[in-house]
């Protein structure tokens, strides 16, 4: 609809400006139309409409959501070449695009380069890098990023911890998952059902059924309501150990 309105403006003798184009590109971003977003960005160049940070950020976000990491990085490079100032949103979009394709090393490189372009990393950019490392199975890198956040006086949030806990599952690091869950209140971050479920799932995958049940019970003490995922993760452990089926039945 936004693109259609934009194309009809000249017929109504109204020439679109950068605000109109930016709105259309943002609509493409929300609609998952990265090809159209790039097309509009190119049209702006040909019709000599000024492209600003908002134009590139919206197009970059569309490419990120579409898993087009190379295009997202290319847009970031073009921004810098045109003396436009990338911001945290720009970098988060580029890092997010790397996460979609499992390019964790590229995501880390982008995060490290942010101070060079005078952009201060935020919890959002760190979370994007954590997600990329998680997808790449780099749980040690995830821990390093959490530590770096604290060192730079950024407080990891629920998303940061939950992704780190979830990453422990594939690495078989159930002790570390419990340590991270325990650390959350000390960092003034309240665990929620998602973070607890991630820890339960990690313990179940490691056949630590007693710990899974203990975490399930702890959720009530934290005023959290166990859901289907909580119970399902705990029950799955008993299928692995091949015993204590009577305990599993009590959870149904």
UniProtKB/TrEMBL annotation:
Signal peptide: none annotated. InterPro entries: PPR_rpt (IPR002885), TPR-like_helical_dom_sf (IPR011990). PPR repeats lie at residues 52-86, 87-121, 122-156, 157-191, 192-226. PROSITE patterns: PPR (PS51375). Keywords: Repeat. This is Pentatricopeptide repeat-containing protein, chloroplastic. It comes from Polarella glacialis (Dinoflagellate).
């Amino acid at each position: 609809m936004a693109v259609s309105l934009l194309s009809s403006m000249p017929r109504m003798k109204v020439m679109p400006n950068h605000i109109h184009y930016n709105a259309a590109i943002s609509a493409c971003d929300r609609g998952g139309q990265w090809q159209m977003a790039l097309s509009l960005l190119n049209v702006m160049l040909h019709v000599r409409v000024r492209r600003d940070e908002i134009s590139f950020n919206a197009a970059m976000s569309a490419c990120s959501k579409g898993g087009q990491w190379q295009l997202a990085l290319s847009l970031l490079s073009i921004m810098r070449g045109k003396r436009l100032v990338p911001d945290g949103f720009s970098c988060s979009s580029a890092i997010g695009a790397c996460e979609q394709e499992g390019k964790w090393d590229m995501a880390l490189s982008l995060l490290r380069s942010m101070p060079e372009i005078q952009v201060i990393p935020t919890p959002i950019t760190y979370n994007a890098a954590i997600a990329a490392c998680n997808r790449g199975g780099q749980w040690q890198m995830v821990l390093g990023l959490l530590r770096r956040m604290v060192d730079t006086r950024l407080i990891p949030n629920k998303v940061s911890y939950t992704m780190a806990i979830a990453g422990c599952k594939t690495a078989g690091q159930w002790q570390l998952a419990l340590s991270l869950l325990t650390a959350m209140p000390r960092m003034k971050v309240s665990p929620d059902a998602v973070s607890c479920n991630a820890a339960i799932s990690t313990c179940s995958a490691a056949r630590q059924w007693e710990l899974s049940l203990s975490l399930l019970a702890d959720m009530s003490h934290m005023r959290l309501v166990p859901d289907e995922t909580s119970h399902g993760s705990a029950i799955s452990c008993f299928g692995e150990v091949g015993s204590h089926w009577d305990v599993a039945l009590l959870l149904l």
